[in-house]
Write a structure and sequence with these properties.
Number of helices: 18
Radius of gyration: 27 Å
Largest sheet: 8 strands, mixed
Structural class: alpha+beta
Distance between the termini: 42 Å
Strand content: 15-25%
Number of strands: 10
Oligomer: single chain
Length: 402
């Protein structure tokens, strides 16, 4: 433990020195030492270098002074985190990815716990392809494994900085390794650089530090699409609620807008072509506004997809609060088939829960009959628990309520 305290003290001192250096320095002296110490300390406890565990160390260095009490406190906190992590049920990589998608966990937590670096390409695979584009988790896992096997992480970064990347020898090399999403990744990087040169990348709710209230919407009439070279698109229109329409604004990425347009038939294709023409025309007014009804004679109906959206939140009196405006960010786009499958699964789970509650309640009725002096066999028969397996299930379900 003395050795650990020395490492924690060294980490504290190096981090504080680093924190005092100018933020604009790209690679300040000491960065590697801090990261190495983070890895060293967490590994000593059997913890991966993921965001949630590194945060324990970041909280530690925010204290004004370091002393034995603080070092003991941090050590206990790390031990507790390690005990909980190491004793958690063993899950396959695929199950971990699926769970991460359901819980919207930060890729910076997920990747180290799967044994992969929090590299730009890996973050893209999980944050963009898995979470946003809803690609199968197995495809993402296969891609991560391929990059790791061939140690292609740095090659991907180098290639992403080349304009005519598809003619470069590195591109042929990566394609030979059968990496499937190289083009998607590089186009995603280039699109961010060209369409938002001065814009700060939108942080996810997890990165901001709040848990959003997700809702699913459909039957949206889009009247206008607005964007410029520094911001992502916004859809302005109306959402059908019962027999009425209410105003709504939806913020989304270009890839998501393209996905919506491609799912909207001929009108969607026409709008997509109009957007491409304006993006390639330097004389186009900024911001770019597509008045759909004026240009195409009717609004765009988004009735063939379901959007999982959330309202952004802000700090108010030290607490997170939703914005009051009817503005939402898109988190996921589901096809009608995907939505119906998800809704059916939720309905089946609810029905199963109702059945289990009824079975558990049968044991209470059985006990009441026994207290009235009715024989065990007769009581089981009246309570519908004459089957021994059903009786045991009812007994244990009832025990859960105690």
């Amino acid at each position: 433990m003395d050795q650990l305290k020395l490492k924690l003290q060294e980490y504290y001192q190096n981090y504080r020195k680093l924190d005092k250096q100018p933020k604009e320095q790209a690679a300040p002296k000491g960065t590697g030492t801090v990261h190495d110490l983070e890895s060293d300390i967490l590994t000593q406890f059997g913890l991966p270098v993921s965001k949630r565990f590194v945060q324990i160390l970041h909280d530690f260095v925010n204290h004004g002074t370091v002393n034995d009490q603080l070092l003991d406190y941090v050590s206990r906190k790390l031990r507790t985190a390690a005990r909980k992590y190491l004793l958690s049920p063993v899950m396959s990589d695929l199950d971990q990815l699926n769970q991460a998608m359901e819980q919207k966990r930060s890729p910076f937590d997920v990747l180290p716990e799967l044994g992969y670096p929090a590299h730009d390409y890996a973050v893209f695979l999980i944050g963009e392809l898995l979470y946003r584009r809803n690609m199968p988790a197995q495809d993402i896992l296969d891609e991560l494994q391929q990059v790791q096997v061939h140690n292609s992480w740095e090659d991907l970064i180098v290639l992403s900085k080349i304009s005519n990347y598809s003619s470069h020898e590195l591109y042929a090399k990566l394609k030979k390794y059968q990496l499937r999403f190289v083009d998607d990744f590089i186009q995603h990087i280039h699109r961010q650089e060209t369409t938002r040169p001065a814009a700060r990348k939108r942080l996810s709710p997890a990165e901001e530090g709040y848990k959003p209230n997700y809702k699913t919407i459909s039957k949206v009439l889009v009247e206008d699409i607005v964007f410029d070279d520094k911001t992502t698109p916004s859809l302005f229109g109306k959402q059908k609620s019962g027999s009425r329409y209410t105003r709504i604004t939806i913020g989304l990425e270009f890839s998501e807008l393209n996905q919506l347009l491609m799912a909207s038939g001929e009108l969607g294709t026409q709008i997509s072509n109009a957007i491409k023409k304006r993006l390639t025309n330097p004389a186009s007014a900024k911001p770019l506004v597509i008045d759909i009804k004026a240009e195409f004679g009717e609004p765009l109906k988004l009735d063939n997809v379901y959007l999982e959206v959330y309202k952004p939140q802000h700090q108010e009196n030290g607490k997170w609060a939703e914005d009051k405006d009817p503005f939402y960010f898109v988190d996921k786009i589901l096809s009608k088939k995907e939505f119906e499958k998800k809704a059916k699964e939720a309905e089946v789970k609810t029905k199963i829960q109702e059945c289990l509650e009824l079975i558990g309640g049968s044991y209470v009725y059985y006990q009441r009959l026994r207290r009235l002096g009715i024989t065990e066999d007769e009581a089981k028969l009246r309570a519908g628990l004459q089957d021994e397996l059903l009786y045991k299930l009812s007994y244990y379900l009832n025990k859960l309520k105690d």
